[in-house]
Amino acid sequence: MDLVFKALADPSRRQLLDRLCSHNGQTLGELCRDLDMTRQAVTKHLALLEAANLVVPVWRGREKLHYLNPVPLHEIYERWIGKFERQRLSALHDLKKILEGDNRE
Amino acid sequence: MDLVFKALADPSRRQLLDRLCSHNGQTLGELCRDLDMTRQAVTKHLALLEAANLVVPVWRGREKLHYLNPVPLHEIYERWIGKFERQRLSALHDLKKILEGDNRE
DNA sequence: TTGACATGCAACCATAAGGTTGCATATTAG
DNA sequence: CTAATATGCAACCTTATGGTTGCATGTCAA
Question: Each residue of A7-36: b (16+ CB within 10 Å) or e?
Fold first, then answer.
C-alpha cells in the first residue's frame, strides 16, 4: 500500500500510467518516446510501478510489454480515499463552521 | 495536485490525516501525542499537508487547531483515480488475457 | 509581571530519490 | 554468423526528504 502511494508521488510515473491507460501493453521503447528522460530513467520508474504492482510486465522475445493493473488503485480508493469520502460532508461542515466563526472559541 | 500526491506519499502524514479523520480539529500538541517523532518533525509534516490544502489550520490563542479539508482528496479521486476506475474492467480483461496467453504473440 | 506552555524558525545531518553515463546481455534480422 | 535492436545492470552525482537539536516568539495563568 505504501509502495502504491510512493509510486504515485512522482509526476513522471503518473504520466507513464496515463500513457498506459490510453494505450495498454506498450514496450519500454514505446513508453520512452517523446519523453525528455533517458531510457534508464524510465526503466527505474517502471520498476517502482511494478514493485507497487500497478504495472505488470510481459516478455515477448526481447521486448517487454507493460500492462496496467487497476487493482492497487482500486484498493487505495476502497481502503483509503473512500474512508475520507464517507466523512467528507461532515469534514466540510466542520471547516465551514470554524472558518465562519473565524477563530473564536 | 502534485502537492497532494506528494503529501500522501509519506506514511506519517497519512497517519496524521487518519488521526484528524477520527478526531477533527486537534492541536499540534495533541497530534504529537504517542508518536515516536519530535514535535518539529510533526510540524514539518503538517506544513506539507497544509501546502497541499489537505489540512487547514485555525489559531485559537497560542494553540493551532488542525482541520481536515476533504476537497483535494475528492479531486484526486474525481480527476485521477476515477479515470482508471472507468477503465478498470477492460484493463483487468487485458491483463487476464495476456497472462493466460502466457507471453505468446 | 513573570514563568510556564504552545508553537515557530533555522541550521544541520543522513539517507532516499531521480537522473545520468557506460557497459553487458539477449534476441531478432539479414 | 554477425549486425542491429531491446533491454538490464552498476556506478555515480545532485538534490529532496525526513529527521534532529537549539533557540526565539507569542500567549495564558498565577
Answer: bbbbeebbebbebbeeebbbeeeebbeeee
